[in-house]
Design brief:
The chain is about 55% helix and about 0% strand. The chain has helices spanning about 10-30, 45-50. The model has no long low-confidence stretch (mean pLDDT about 85).
């Protein structure tokens, strides 16, 4: 099992990660009007998504 210390970030790393997340959210909202409301996949493509591995 992984140690909790393996998942700790320093203040600068955490801040940088937070800024990246905020940038991604802003970009998502900024481009919503340019995206379609739905996505279409062909049956063959979907079949691969639901097969057991």
């Amino acid at each position: 099992m992984a140690d909790v210390a393996d998942f700790e970030l320093g203040a600068d790393e955490m801040r940088a990660l937070g800024y990246r997340v905020v940038d991604m959210i802003v970009e998502h909202h900024r481009t919503l009007g340019q995206k379609s409301a739905t996505r279409v996949k062909r049956r063959k493509m979907l079949a691969g998504d639901f097969t057991q591995r």
